[in-house]
Amino acid sequence: xxxxxxxxxSLSSGTSENTTSTQANLLQAYIQSHExxxxxxxxxxxxxxxxHDASGHCQQVVHVPAHSRKGHPVAAYDRLCGQxxxxxxxxxxxxxxxxxxxxxxxSTENNSSENMREKYNELIKEYWPHLKENEGMKxxxxxxxxxxxxxxxGLYIPDxxxxxxxxxxxxGKEATFEQKVAEYQRLEAFQKNGQFGQNYRAExxxxxxxxxxxxxxxxxxxxxxxxxxxxxxxILETKYxxxxxxxxxxxxxxxxxxxxxxxxxxxxxWHYFHEGLKNKDISQMIKHVNRPQxxxxxxxxxxxxxxEIPLVNGWH
Length: 316
Hints:
disordered N terminus
């Protein structure tokens, strides 16, 4: 918003100044021609302007004969001047409205996150140890089993721009842009060489020399993980209208599936699991909850958690 605003203001002032100079020159030429054709007319002078001060008043003075100003270029210029003021005022008003809208949107988003965190506080607290055990808390960047550049607790970094925007630290100080780019390219080389999958642990991607490692603070990683969880919970509420009423064990498994697979966890790809969920059929959900890309421990946790669903409210 600020950059756009600055650009608009700069463009407006530059245009006004150039237009003023051109209009003044044309106006003066017309006056000289007009005076030579009508020598008997009054030479009373009227002030018209081009440049404007901070209050919107004119600064440059152009002298124009007072006679017959109807249809005269100065009349058209006055209209143009008025239009410029109107356009500038409208632009400033639009900018103020846009900033106010953005502030309200940010406030709404913050409130939404706080409400989501408060609503599912107990769920997140119960789920957190499992998430940390399976995703780990990696302060460095690595490739996940699918070859995606990742950090923290399984936080996916989609591209170089996203990578360089993170607050990476190098030897206790903020890393330079060049250091961030170099680290991203180093990880890309692992991707191109196919060095990822179940046989590669996160530590495989650490720098040989620990002094060269780029790292993130624990506070930042926890904060980003919470944002990730809150976003997943919002999506789960949208996809499953009864999500709030599901047993805690079902909520945790759905959250783990969503956190781990993102948009790939859907009714089309996981048809039989979702069919079991719809029918509250625990056995069918257990049978079809296995994820080939995650560890055996994580799949065992999902099956065991589903076995703990209380046999009430239609669950069987």
